[in-house]
Amino acid sequence: MLVDVHNHFSYYQEDTDRALKDIHENGVLMVSVSTDIPSYNDTLELARRSELILPAFGVHPIYAHEHMDQLDTIKRTADEALMLGEIGLDRKWTADASYFPLQVSLLEKFLESAQKQGTIVILHVAGAESETLDLLENYSLRNGIIHDYYGPISLVEKIIDTDLYFAFDGSYLKSYEQEIPGWKERLEIVTMIPDDLFLLETDGPNKPPRRMPLKALQMVVERIAELRKTSVEEISAHSSSNFLNLIKDDPRLSKYITIMKQS
Ligand SMILES: [Zn+2]
User: Peptide bond before 101: cis, by omega within 30 degrees of 0?
Assistant: First the structure.
């Protein structure tokens, strides 16, 4: 079974029914992140409708400054969540640099919870890659996923050394060549990550017209297979077994292991 380890399923809106049908017909497990408390509640509702939605709770770092008066609620909610994401630090999209220390405070709350409960974290690190990795050193976490990596190639070895999982996304598709500075050089990252440390994500849904989950994920699988000079089957198999390895020691996630093995 294919797994999309980072998508915003609650953003499908009027296409939700169609997207749910798509994952059930094709057997795709969606780790569905949230970016604030309302989107987490929407994601929980989706998880009640479908066992193929694995809900993750997070407050996106770009919204950190709006949540400083809700840290207690966030901590409580985080303690009960199956996974934590999307959480992290951001210097790429955050216009006001004075918000950055607030992002750190918020991320610390999530990491304290992750450490205490043994919860897997899904990390947004844009523009703050080394700062996030440095902060992680203060915690003993079960494990985590690096999402949407735009950092320096030189830091990728460090990510590999820390045994964090690296999620490949659509940014390696040719259509992003003009959009992402240094796109061509970045392609090297795809071949640097070992077979046992990569996962797949779409960060979907894309803006309307929204691509359905399987199609969006297949485009990533095909592109990564091409860049790693291997087959689609091989990429699919590795990414699925890597996800099983990631979640295997968390008893709260055993339901998803069963679902994946049944498919
Ligand atoms: Zn995202």
Answer: no
